[in-house]
Amino acid sequence: MVxxxxxxxxxxxxxxxxxxxxxxxxxxxxxxxxxLEKPGETIKPLLPYADAIMLTRxxxxxxxxxxxxxxxxxxxxxxSSVVGDDLSNEDQITSIREIIRLNASAVSMSxxxxxxxxxxxxxxxxxxxxxxxxxxxxxxxxTAVGRELEKRKARFLALCCRIAAEIGARVVKTYYCPExxxxxxxxxxxxxxxxxxPRVDSEIEVFxxxxxxxxNGAIGVNxxxxxxxxxxxxxxxxxxxxxxxxxxxxxxxxxxxxxNKTVKD
Length: 265
Prior knowledge:
Layout: H1 3-12, E1 19-23, H2 27-30, H3 39-43, E2 52-55, H4 57-63, E3 72-75, E4 77-78, E5 91-92, H5 96-101, E6 106-111, H6 118-134, E7 139-143, H7 154-167, E8 171-174, H8 181-186, E9 192-195, H9 203-215, E10 220-222, H10 225-228, H11 233-245, H12 250-260
Parallel strand pairs: 1-2, 1-10, 2-3, 3-6, 6-7, 7-8, 8-9, 9-10
Antiparallel strand pairs: 4-5
C-alpha cells in the first residue's frame, strides 16, 4: 500500500483499529433533514468526539471551519433525490481536482447492487478508485439499498461488500443485520463500518446492534441520524465513543448516556 493511502487511512482508523465516523451528507438527496437544517450548528459540539466527518463539498465549504483538523470523508456521488424516480440513478458529482483541493482524507460513493442502475454505480466506483489511487486517496464504498430496506439480509450484504472490495474500495460501509453478520465481514477483505439507517426507538437498541457488529468483526460505525437526531446528541456520541474505543458493554454505554444527558452540552 502506498504511503499516501496508508497515511490517510491512519487519520481515519484509530490506533485501536476502530472508527467513529459522523455522516452529515443526508441533504444531498433529501434536503434539509430534521436536526440538520443548520449543519454547522448541529456538528459543532459533536466534532470533538468523532474520528472523522462525512459530508458533501457544499456543506464542507459553508459549514466547517477551515482551521479544523478533523479528517474529512468527502461524499462524491449524487444526482438523484427522494422525489425522483430512482435513488440509485447516481453519478460522480465531484472531481478529483476538487477532492484534492478540499484536502479530503477519503471519499465515499454509493453503489446500488440489484437496482436498475447497478452497472452504472459499479462503473462509477471503479473509475473513482482509479482516479483516487493515483493520488493516494482511499475510497469508501457505501452499499446503499435505496428505499428497499428489506434487502438488508446477510447474503445480500455479503454480495454487496465483496463486490465493492473486488472493485477496489479500501473501506466498505454497509448495514448491520442480526443474523449471520459475521459472514458479511468474513467475505469482505477490507474493513467494514456500520451504517445507522433510520433513527431507532431507544438508545439501548443502538448500543446493542453496534456492540454485536463490533463483536462480529466490524471496525466501527458511520452513524448520523441516531446521533444528531437524538434529544441528547452529545451524550449519545460520547457513549458511542466509549462503546467503540473503550470497549464498553451496551449496558455501560447506556449508563454513561443517562449520566451525561443531564449535563448541559
